[in-house]
Amino acid sequence: MSPTSYVPTKIEGFHDAHIHCKVFFSSVEQSGGQRVRLDLQKLTQYSFFPGQVVGVEGHNPSGHCLVASKVFDSFPFSVSPDVEFPPAKKQAMDHEFQPDSPSSTPEKLSLVIAAGPFTTTDNLLFEPLVELLAYATRKQPQLLMLLGPFIDSEHPEIRKGTIDRSFDDIFHSDILRRLQDYAEYMGSAARVVLVPSLRDAFHDFVFPQPAFDIHSDLKNQITCLPNPGLFDANKLGERIKSGHSGVNMAGTRLLNFYVFGFYPLYPPSEDVPLDLSLAPEALQIPSIPDIIILPSDLSPFVKVLALGEKTSTGEQTRCITVNPGRLAKGVGGGTFVEMNYHENPDRTHALIFHM
């Protein structure tokens, strides 16, 4: 590298446990992908994680250590809501979901969002799921989004291996059957979306994770997405990730990184079976979505995330990020989110409900 440098880089890890020294590697165009130490002592504040892509301005007088004077962790990004997703990145697109009311604008959508487990730890009766479906039947949202785990590998009965039914039988008889009954009652105006989790005992343990394979008769109103997945409903772009974030951060800073990629951490967390051969297509997104759904064990929240970029009209780019929490927690009920989205975050109403 030249003595004065401005380069895009990826943070790789700590160097010799010194807090002000990290290892990063640059682009092939800039430095052939070579690794070098990054000295941060001149920065008043910073926060990095392994795998983060940043821009660094600084000096490298020796060729072995870049002394940073500025760090940029935000880059221009597409904000078009009508972008056409390439087939490999799109992963799931719903062209049939249209509002029945002629007065409804394409940007209006009512949702109920919940993440598993869907049964308490003292049984496999799925009582929280039954209560959720009863609530959705009363409220009649256009979209019911359910994110795994559905058959939780961490459930005590599953871990003991003493149940006398197959996981597929439990999923189809206790979950899909109830969802089918709900969809038939609601009619064509409603849609159910299912997203798997790495904790689903009966599904592929790999990330990115494929969608559930359900019977074709159920696909008319039940849509299965991969994890992570993209979904377009009423011209709203939604992004869903179900499972472990792998990043030990909370609040707006973590959410900012998820705008640019489904899994920003590298190397991955030990409990995430990341398949990098799938990552170039499955972990990227071409534009900022209207809604990001990121379930976790943290306290549930609905946040409006301001990204600092401008739209074509000069307004600041924003998206809504949702953590619905867990529908079941221990032997009791948990939380879920009900949202009414109307054109933009300012006119959107969301509530967190406790079971």
Automatic annotation (TrEMBL):
Question: Which residues does UniProt call coiled coil?
Answer: none
- Annotated DNA polymerase alpha/delta/epsilon subunit B domain residues: 111-235
> What's the chief localization of this chain?
nucleus
Mind listing the GO molecular function terms for this protein? DNA binding
Query: What biological-process GO terms show up in the record?
Result: DNA replication initiation
InterPro entries recorded:
DNA_pol_a/d/e_bsu, DNA_pol_alpha_bsu, OB_DPOA2
Per the database record, which ranges form the DNA polymerase alpha subunit B OB domain?
A: 26-73
Ordered alphabetically, the record's keywords are: DNA replication, Nucleus
GO cellular component terms, alphabetically, are: alpha DNA polymerase:primase complex
Q: What domain of life is recorded for the organism?
A: Eukaryota
Cellular compartment(s) = Nucleus
Q: Does the keyword Nucleus apply?
A: yes
User: Could you say which protein family the record assigns here?
Assistant: Belongs to the DNA polymerase alpha subunit B family.
Identification of the protein by name:
DNA polymerase alpha subunit B
In which organism is this protein found? Coptis chinensis
